[in-house]
Each structure stands twice: as structure tokens, then as C-alpha cells.
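pasting for the record
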Amino acid sequence: MTILLLSLFAAAQASAYTVTIGTGPKAAYLRVGDGSITGGNYNAGGTPAANTTVNLVSVTVPANVVGNTVDQAMTGTGRTTSDWDGFAFCNAGQVYIGAFFRLPTNPNQSATLRATAPTALTSAGGDTIPITQITWTSSGNGDAGAQPFPAGAFAGGTQTLATLLRNTWAESCHTFSYGNDAIVAAGTYNARVTYTLATP
């Protein structure tokens, strides 16, 4: 049985890797998995660019362990280096999530990261697995403590994942797992999750 979860993106030691963004016009950036930046890394004057890649998170569950309630590690695709400075922030198989929201005025404003997911992964034969079986942890190489985009689980529908303070760059690495809590029919199960950074 193969579980596939498609994720669609729009685009130092610390308690989490968050840096202050300098002056400039109002802007927002979101990258989930792959992404594009032109002119070098952002801290050297690079500019984020649109990227239409749809990244994949997947696991193949061996028949002899289907439904044994032991979580199965999923493997993600996409670049693992930070667009801030090119640092290898995530490891192979993790999904990089990075964002910033720049707003020179209105100090009490913030942006909201949301994920919209169906209620279930579905096979070609019409069998389903609840999307709540997909969870993730959050980390980052060189980080310690709480992450700006914390661990969680998909709930179906639109859910808020994090709030991003104005004039900051934040990034985390998500490691996905499949709960494997039920015996389901063999097949390939798919779902697509869309991440959105909403700004005032």
C-alpha cells in the first residue's frame, strides 16, 4: 500500500530560526518544499520568484505491517536549503517551510499560515484513509526549542498552522508520518494539501 500526500506551495542557534527583515515595501513570501529565488540568497539581495512545482510526501507500507498502529515515516521531496542564506537547514526527506511578511508600518499586524486539506486520502477504487492519519514534527538543523511552524496533524478543511509576526523571516522543517491505525485495502491513496500565507 502506498500513501501519497501532495503539498502545493504558494512560496544559527536560537529557539527557532527567525530573523528580522529590513526596510522595504509591503511583501510576503511562502515556500513549501521547492521554491525559486533569483539573484542569490535573500540575505545577499536575492528576490523570491514564482514556482509552480507540486511536491510529494509519500510512504509505502509493507503488507505485513498494514494497520499495526505503528507510525510509518513518510519521505518528502523538494529542496532542503534555506533561501535566506543557502544553509542546509533541512535534511533529505523533510519538507522545508519558509515565509516572511514585511510591513513597514502598522506594528500590530501579522500574517497567517493556513493549510487546506480534504477529509481523506482516496484510492482509485474509492477506498479512503482519514487525513487525520497524517501528522508531522518540526525541527531545523542548528535550532533548539520551539519552531515558528510547529508540529501538528491535518484535520480536513482549512486550519491555521502558525502566525507570522511582521518584518520577520521564519523557517522550519516538517517530517511527516502516517498513523497506520487501520487495515485498509491495498492501493495508492492520494490527497492534495494547499498552503496559503494570508496577509492583512
